[in-house]
Write a structure and sequence with these properties.
The chain is α/β, with parallel strands linked by helices and 397 residues long. Helices cover 43% and strands 13% of the residues. The chain is built from 13 helices and twelve strands. Strands 2-8-7-6-5-3-4 form a seven-stranded mixed β-sheet, with helices on both faces. Helix 5 crosses helix 6 and helix 5 crosses helix 9. The chain binds pyridoxal-5'-phosphate. The site of pyridoxal-5'-phosphate has 13 residues, from helix 5.
Amino acid sequence: MSLTVSRDRVENLLKASARSDVPPFMVMDVMAAAARIEAAGGHVIHMEVGQPEHAAPRTALAAAQAALTGSRLDYTSALGIPSLRQRIARYYRDTQDCVIDPDRIVVTTGSSGAFILAFLALFEPGDRVAVTVPGYPPYRHILSALGCDVVPIETSAASRHALTGDMLLAAHRKAPLKGVLVASPANPTGTMMTREALAGLITAAESEGIRFISDEIYHGLDYAFPAVTAASLSPHALVINSFSKYFCMTGWRVGWMVVPDELVRPIERLQQNLAISVPTLSQIAAEGAFDGTAEMDDVKHGYEINRRLLIDGLPKAGLKRFLPVDGAFYLYADVSDFTHDSLDFAKRMLEQAHVAATPGVDFDPVHGRAFVRFCYAGSAPDMTEAVERIGQWLARG
Ligand SMILES: Cc1ncc(COP(=O)(O)O)c(C=O)c1O
């Protein structure tokens, strides 16, 4: 027996909420086009996705394998396995000389899961939250899906593409802000903030009661100078990190937060309800990853070689201008000598030179029309080949 439902009711049943109407990630379209070229036998050099080519540390894989031959994988505490939280705290002590109470550490499903918990714990619908432009698109999309007002603040070469206290306070004076989110090293720019710049921004934010959120997912991948954690500068900052990048564990979907004391319990309650806990196998692997830092430092060394190949090679190929290549594994190139339509530029470069990169419009709808992001997390021979192909392609006009 089938139910008879009127047409307008059916339309209502099928309608997605307005808040779910977030823009897609354009890099996915580039990936799909690259896959079509590969299916037809072409060899594409992938510089579009921000994903390490290397696998998870061997120590992480061994820990996961051992867990699989054990008995059960149960739920864990919503805040994460206690020994993992302690190990994360130790990592701060070892790498940043920063003492953090393990009770302030929350294990999350990647940093992506951390954003949802953090934004829910910190903001009400309608709160204004500042993010930098260019910037990682899901910041804006998650905030708006949760009903927050995103306040984009444009960065420029004048501040090495970092947000400054003055810029933040100027936006705050127009209409009060509740929060601000920055990343250093940043995506897509690959630029970093010095300790002084970060400290200045945190002081400016907190003196006005603006919550400071620091996305530190690219920590460990710093080349210009050491990255500084906001956790060492303020107990009120909310720090987000992940095993995806330095530890090469994107698909394991595990990350963490360092949260101010008063937010531990609210975030625990949210996590209990939203996810119960983070996948247990991934947490076990993540704990094992900390014994694999020597292997990961070798991977980082490979990125440093790639970075040098691009910094030296791209200008000869014709891409003479790019932002300071400080950290992460991105180079953000100014292609305004050739185009003001980076989507078309990236499409043609893919079709004609078989080099895949991400159009800047993914990160900045306006100025991004003149920028392309290259990810250098691949192999050194691929970087050399990419530079050659780009040079020949640009020379052909
Ligand atoms: C700046 C930044 N933050 C967060 C993420 C999300 O990473 P994950 O959820 O894998 O930790 C990414 C992924 O590329 C990123 O570039």
